[in-house]
Amino acid sequence: MALAVELIFFGGDDRGLFGCYHAPLPPARECAFVLCPPHGHEDIQFHRVLRQLAVLLAEAGFGVLRFDPSGCGDSVGDSDDWGLARWQDDVGSAMDELRQRSGVHRVGLIGLRLGASVAMAAAARSDVDSLVLWDPVISGADYLSELRGLHQGMLAHAHVTPAPVSRAAAHGGASTGEELLGYPMPGQLSAELSSLDLLASTERPARQALLVESNKAAAQGDLVRHLGKLDVAVQHEPVSNPHLWVWNEDFAKVHVPRKILELITAWASEVYP
Protein backbone atom coordinates (compact mmCIF):
# COMPACT_ATOMS: atom_id res chain seq x y z
CA MET A 1 0.00 0.00 0.00
CA ALA A 2 1.37 3.41 -0.99
CA LEU A 3 1.94 6.04 1.66
CA ALA A 4 -0.27 9.13 1.48
CA VAL A 5 1.46 12.51 1.93
CA GLU A 6 -0.58 15.69 2.14
CA LEU A 7 0.93 19.16 1.73
CA ILE A 8 -0.81 21.63 4.02
CA PHE A 9 -0.76 25.12 5.52
CA PHE A 10 -1.95 25.44 9.10
CA GLY A 11 -1.84 27.66 12.15
CA GLY A 12 -4.21 30.36 10.89
CA ASP A 13 -3.64 33.39 8.69
CA ASP A 14 -1.28 34.98 11.21
CA ARG A 15 1.07 31.98 11.10
CA GLY A 16 0.78 30.23 7.75
CA LEU A 17 2.95 27.25 8.64
CA PHE A 18 3.79 24.82 5.86
CA GLY A 19 3.74 21.12 6.62
CA CYS A 20 3.71 17.62 5.16
CA TYR A 21 1.34 15.15 6.79
CA HIS A 22 2.27 11.49 6.37
CA ALA A 23 -0.77 9.31 7.01
CA PRO A 24 0.02 6.01 8.77
CA LEU A 25 -0.26 2.65 7.11
CA PRO A 26 -2.88 0.49 8.86
CA PRO A 27 -3.17 -0.60 11.50
CA ALA A 28 -2.57 2.89 12.88
CA ARG A 29 -0.99 3.17 16.31
CA GLU A 30 -2.33 5.22 19.20
CA CYS A 31 0.30 7.97 18.92
CA ALA A 32 1.45 10.37 16.20
CA PHE A 33 4.66 12.39 15.94
CA VAL A 34 5.59 15.96 15.08
CA LEU A 35 9.10 16.30 13.62
CA CYS A 36 10.93 19.45 14.76
CA PRO A 37 13.74 20.32 12.33
CA PRO A 38 17.17 21.75 13.10
CA HIS A 39 18.04 25.28 12.00
CA GLY A 40 20.04 26.91 9.24
CA HIS A 41 22.47 24.77 7.27
CA GLU A 42 21.57 21.73 9.39
CA ASP A 43 17.95 22.02 8.30
CA ILE A 44 18.98 22.00 4.63
CA GLN A 45 21.41 19.12 5.10
CA PHE A 46 18.88 17.00 6.98
CA HIS A 47 15.74 17.70 4.97
CA ARG A 48 16.05 14.32 3.24
CA VAL A 49 16.83 12.60 6.54
CA LEU A 50 13.66 13.93 8.16
CA ARG A 51 11.60 12.83 5.18
CA GLN A 52 13.07 9.32 5.40
CA LEU A 53 12.32 9.23 9.13
CA ALA A 54 8.71 10.29 8.47
CA VAL A 55 8.35 7.50 5.90
CA LEU A 56 9.70 4.86 8.28
CA LEU A 57 7.39 5.99 11.08
CA ALA A 58 4.36 6.12 8.78
CA GLU A 59 5.14 2.62 7.50
CA ALA A 60 5.24 1.52 11.15
CA GLY A 61 1.71 2.88 11.70
CA PHE A 62 2.40 6.38 13.08
CA GLY A 63 0.88 9.57 11.72
CA VAL A 64 3.66 12.12 11.17
CA LEU A 65 3.72 15.87 10.59
CA ARG A 66 6.86 17.55 9.25
CA PHE A 67 6.75 21.34 9.20
CA ASP A 68 8.72 24.53 8.63
CA PRO A 69 8.78 26.90 11.64
CA SER A 70 7.88 30.57 11.24
CA GLY A 71 10.15 32.38 8.79
CA CYS A 72 11.75 29.15 7.58
CA GLY A 73 11.31 27.10 4.42
CA ASP A 74 7.87 27.59 2.89
CA SER A 75 6.21 29.01 6.00
CA VAL A 76 5.15 32.64 6.21
CA GLY A 77 7.70 35.19 7.37
CA ASP A 78 11.43 35.80 7.20
CA SER A 79 14.37 35.91 9.60
CA ASP A 80 12.70 38.74 11.53
CA ASP A 81 10.24 36.09 12.74
CA TRP A 82 12.94 33.77 14.07
CA GLY A 83 12.88 33.16 17.80
CA LEU A 84 12.79 30.26 20.22
CA ALA A 85 9.56 31.39 21.91
CA ARG A 86 7.75 31.79 18.57
CA TRP A 87 9.00 28.40 17.37
CA GLN A 88 7.71 26.80 20.57
CA ASP A 89 4.29 28.24 19.74
CA ASP A 90 4.64 26.77 16.24
CA VAL A 91 5.24 23.32 17.76
CA GLY A 92 2.03 23.70 19.74
CA SER A 93 0.14 24.59 16.55
CA ALA A 94 1.66 21.56 14.82
CA MET A 95 0.54 19.29 17.65
CA ASP A 96 -3.03 20.60 17.42
CA GLU A 97 -3.02 20.09 13.64
CA LEU A 98 -1.65 16.55 13.97
CA ARG A 99 -4.28 15.54 16.52
CA GLN A 100 -7.00 16.80 14.21
CA ARG A 101 -5.67 15.03 11.13
CA SER A 102 -4.60 11.75 12.73
CA GLY A 103 -7.57 11.37 15.05
CA VAL A 104 -5.32 10.35 17.96
CA HIS A 105 -4.88 12.25 21.20
CA ARG A 106 -1.39 11.07 22.18
CA VAL A 107 1.31 13.07 20.41
CA GLY A 108 5.08 12.81 20.63
CA LEU A 109 7.80 15.19 19.50
CA ILE A 110 10.99 14.26 17.66
CA GLY A 111 13.57 17.03 17.45
CA LEU A 112 17.02 17.34 15.91
CA ARG A 113 19.67 19.69 17.33
CA LEU A 114 18.09 23.12 17.94
CA GLY A 115 14.75 21.57 16.96
CA ALA A 116 15.20 19.15 19.87
CA SER A 117 15.77 22.06 22.25
CA VAL A 118 12.64 23.80 20.99
CA ALA A 119 10.70 20.52 21.26
CA MET A 120 11.76 19.98 24.86
CA ALA A 121 10.73 23.50 25.85
CA ALA A 122 7.41 23.20 24.00
CA ALA A 123 6.74 19.81 25.58
CA ALA A 124 7.15 21.23 29.08
CA ARG A 125 4.13 23.46 28.55
CA SER A 126 1.98 21.03 26.54
CA ASP A 127 0.48 17.57 26.85
CA VAL A 128 3.30 15.57 25.23
CA ASP A 129 3.38 11.82 25.68
CA SER A 130 6.90 11.05 24.50
CA LEU A 131 9.99 12.90 23.35
CA VAL A 132 12.91 12.00 21.08
CA LEU A 133 15.92 14.30 21.41
CA TRP A 134 18.57 13.78 18.73
CA ASP A 135 21.80 15.60 19.67
CA PRO A 136 19.90 18.46 21.33
CA VAL A 137 21.55 21.84 21.80
CA ILE A 138 21.95 21.94 25.58
CA SER A 139 23.73 25.28 25.81
CA GLY A 140 22.75 27.99 23.34
CA ALA A 141 25.95 29.92 24.09
CA ASP A 142 28.05 26.88 23.15
CA TYR A 143 25.95 26.40 20.01
CA LEU A 144 26.62 29.99 18.91
CA SER A 145 30.33 29.51 19.56
CA GLU A 146 30.28 26.32 17.50
CA LEU A 147 28.53 28.04 14.58
CA ARG A 148 31.00 30.92 14.65
CA GLY A 149 33.91 28.48 14.60
CA LEU A 150 32.45 26.61 11.62
CA HIS A 151 31.80 29.93 9.90
CA GLN A 152 35.41 31.03 10.28
CA GLY A 153 36.57 27.64 9.00
CA MET A 154 34.32 28.04 5.96
CA LEU A 155 35.67 31.54 5.27
CA ALA A 156 39.23 30.21 5.36
CA HIS A 157 38.46 28.26 2.18
CA ALA A 158 36.20 30.87 0.54
CA HIS A 159 37.15 32.70 -2.64
CA VAL A 160 36.17 36.02 -1.08
CA THR A 161 36.14 37.35 2.46
CA PRO A 162 33.00 39.36 3.25
CA ALA A 163 33.20 42.42 5.42
CA PRO A 164 31.92 41.77 8.96
CA VAL A 165 28.86 44.02 8.57
CA SER A 166 25.29 43.05 9.39
CA ARG A 167 22.54 43.44 6.80
CA ALA A 168 21.02 46.39 8.67
CA ALA A 169 24.35 48.15 9.07
CA ALA A 170 25.05 47.68 5.35
CA HIS A 171 21.98 49.84 4.68
CA GLY A 172 22.90 52.52 7.16
CA GLY A 173 20.95 51.10 10.11
CA ALA A 174 22.03 49.73 13.44
CA SER A 175 23.71 46.34 13.59
CA THR A 176 21.05 43.77 14.48
CA GLY A 177 22.99 40.54 14.09
CA GLU A 178 25.52 38.62 12.06
CA GLU A 179 25.73 36.05 9.32
CA LEU A 180 26.73 32.48 10.09
CA LEU A 181 27.28 29.87 7.37
CA GLY A 182 25.13 31.78 4.91
CA TYR A 183 22.24 32.42 7.30
CA PRO A 184 21.43 35.57 9.27
CA MET A 185 21.59 35.41 13.03
CA PRO A 186 19.13 38.11 14.14
CA GLY A 187 19.83 39.85 17.40
CA GLN A 188 16.60 38.52 18.95
CA LEU A 189 17.46 34.89 18.21
CA SER A 190 21.07 35.37 19.30
CA ALA A 191 19.91 36.79 22.63
CA GLU A 192 17.50 33.88 23.20
CA LEU A 193 20.19 31.36 22.32
CA SER A 194 22.66 33.01 24.68
CA SER A 195 20.32 32.26 27.58
CA LEU A 196 19.26 28.77 26.43
CA ASP A 197 20.18 26.09 28.96
CA LEU A 198 18.26 22.81 28.97
CA LEU A 199 19.84 21.86 32.29
CA ALA A 200 18.03 24.80 33.93
CA SER A 201 14.58 23.49 32.99
CA THR A 202 12.27 22.71 35.88
CA GLU A 203 9.14 21.33 34.19
CA ARG A 204 8.74 17.68 33.24
CA PRO A 205 8.54 17.63 29.43
CA ALA A 206 7.19 14.10 28.88
CA ARG A 207 6.65 10.72 30.51
CA GLN A 208 9.37 9.06 28.48
CA ALA A 209 12.20 10.10 26.21
CA LEU A 210 14.79 8.70 23.84
CA LEU A 211 18.04 10.64 23.73
CA VAL A 212 20.26 9.92 20.71
CA GLU A 213 23.90 10.98 21.04
CA SER A 214 26.09 10.81 17.93
CA ASN A 215 29.15 12.76 19.10
CA LYS A 216 31.06 12.10 22.34
CA ALA A 217 32.46 15.63 22.10
CA ALA A 218 28.93 16.84 22.84
CA ALA A 219 28.09 14.20 25.46
CA GLN A 220 24.51 14.15 26.69
CA GLY A 221 25.07 12.48 30.08
CA ASP A 222 24.27 15.63 32.06
CA LEU A 223 20.95 16.00 30.24
CA VAL A 224 20.10 12.33 30.82
CA ARG A 225 20.62 12.80 34.55
CA HIS A 226 18.68 16.08 34.56
CA LEU A 227 15.70 14.50 32.81
CA GLY A 228 15.81 11.67 35.33
CA LYS A 229 15.49 14.22 38.12
CA LEU A 230 12.40 15.57 36.34
CA ASP A 231 10.89 12.06 36.51
CA VAL A 232 11.32 11.30 32.81
CA ALA A 233 12.02 7.67 31.89
CA VAL A 234 15.04 8.16 29.59
CA GLN A 235 16.65 5.72 27.19
CA HIS A 236 20.10 6.99 26.24
CA GLU A 237 21.51 5.65 22.96
CA PRO A 238 25.05 6.63 21.90
CA VAL A 239 25.46 6.01 18.16
CA SER A 240 28.90 7.21 17.08
CA ASN A 241 28.77 9.50 14.05
CA PRO A 242 30.90 12.53 15.04
CA HIS A 243 30.84 14.24 11.63
CA LEU A 244 27.07 14.17 11.30
CA TRP A 245 26.45 17.87 11.87
CA VAL A 246 29.59 19.33 10.30
CA TRP A 247 28.89 21.95 7.66
CA ASN A 248 29.13 20.47 4.16
CA GLU A 249 29.17 22.67 1.07
CA ASP A 250 27.90 19.81 -1.11
CA PHE A 251 24.56 18.72 0.39
CA ALA A 252 24.50 15.75 -1.99
CA LYS A 253 27.31 14.22 0.08
CA VAL A 254 25.28 14.25 3.31
CA HIS A 255 24.50 10.62 4.10
CA VAL A 256 21.32 9.32 5.68
CA PRO A 257 22.15 7.82 9.11
CA ARG A 258 19.87 4.83 8.60
CA LYS A 259 20.91 3.18 11.87
CA ILE A 260 19.64 6.16 13.87
CA LEU A 261 16.39 6.37 11.92
CA GLU A 262 15.73 2.68 12.51
CA LEU A 263 16.61 3.09 16.19
CA ILE A 264 14.04 5.88 16.61
CA THR A 265 11.37 3.91 14.75
CA ALA A 266 12.05 0.76 16.79
CA TRP A 267 11.88 2.71 20.06
CA ALA A 268 8.57 4.31 19.09
CA SER A 269 7.16 0.94 18.03
CA GLU A 270 8.14 -0.60 21.36
CA VAL A 271 6.63 2.26 23.37
CA TYR A 272 3.40 2.11 21.35
CA PRO A 273 2.97 -1.58 20.39
Written account of the structure:
This protein is of the alpha/beta class. It folds into two domains: 5-138 and 204-271, Alpha/Beta hydrolase fold, catalytic domain (Rossmann fold, 3-Layer(aba) Sandwich), CATH 3.40.50.1820; 140-196, no CATH class. The chain has nine helices and ten strands. Strands 1-2-4-3-5-6-9-10 form an eight-stranded mixed sheet, with helices on both faces. Strand 1 (5-10) and strand 2 form a beta hairpin. Helix 2 packs parallel to helix 9 (258-271), helix 3 packs across helix 4 (114-123) and helix 5 packs across helix 7. The longest helix is centred in the middle third of the chain and has 19 residues, at 84-102. The protein starts with a strand and ends with a helix.
